[in-house]
Amino acid sequence: MKTLYFAYGLSLEENTMVDQKPSARFYKFAMLKGSKLIFSSKNKDKFGFCSLKRGTMKDYLEGVLYTVNHWELPEPFEGCSCSIMDVICDNGESVTAHVYYTNNKNLVAPEEDYFWRVHKKYQDYGFNTQALEDALNKSNY
């Protein structure tokens, strides 16, 4: 059975997503209203990675929806969670999708290569790179 997975961060790279979940296929561009992008660590990791935190209803997190076989969805790593959330597709349709994020909201800067890979996908997809740069500036960068 297929399910929807909301990807942001390195999972925006289709090859990275397919390496982790072979059945993954691009479905639509989408956004998660009321959430902001942050760089966070799972526990006390040295480098952060993309996660989210609640924001105002003016805030949104851009990403990509993939269809994926539900049995390929992993259990969240220690210090992370997965929730089924309402996501708005680029055509205005509202769907539910699996969204992974850290429980720990300590802001930690990512490795430089990680940041630039995500930045490149933001540019490729026409996403708001300012949201990504703001998240970096608010981390311990």
CATH fold naming: Hypothetical upf0131 protein ytfp
Number of domains: 1
Number of discrete helical segments: 3
In the CATH hierarchy, the architecture is Roll
Lateral arrangement of strands in the main beta sheet: 1-5-2-6-7
Question: What about the largest sheet?
Answer: 5 strands, antiparallel
Q: What percent of residues adopt helix (DSSP H or I)?
A: 10-25%
Assign the CATH superfamily: Gamma-glutamyl cyclotransferase-like
What structural class do you assign from the helix and strand content?
alpha+beta
| Record field, number of beta strands | 7
Task: Give the secondary structure arrangement, pairings included.
Blueprint: E1 2-7, H1 14-20, E2 25-33, E3 35-40, E4 49-54, E5 60-69, E6 80-89, E7 94-102, H2 112-125, H3 129-138
Antiparallel strand pairs: 1-5, 2-5, 2-6, 3-4, 6-7
List the defining traits of the structure above.
alpha+beta; Hypothetical upf0131 protein ytfp; five-stranded antiparallel beta sheet; 3 helices; globular
If you had to describe this structure to a student in words, what would you say it looks like?
22% of the residues lie in helices and 40% in strands. The protein has 141 residues and is of the alpha+beta class. The chain has a single domain, classed as Hypothetical upf0131 protein ytfp (Roll), CATH 3.10.490. It has a five-stranded antiparallel sheet with strand order 1-5-2-6-7, with no helix packed on it. It has a two-stranded antiparallel sheet with strand order 3-4. It starts with a strand and ends with a helix.
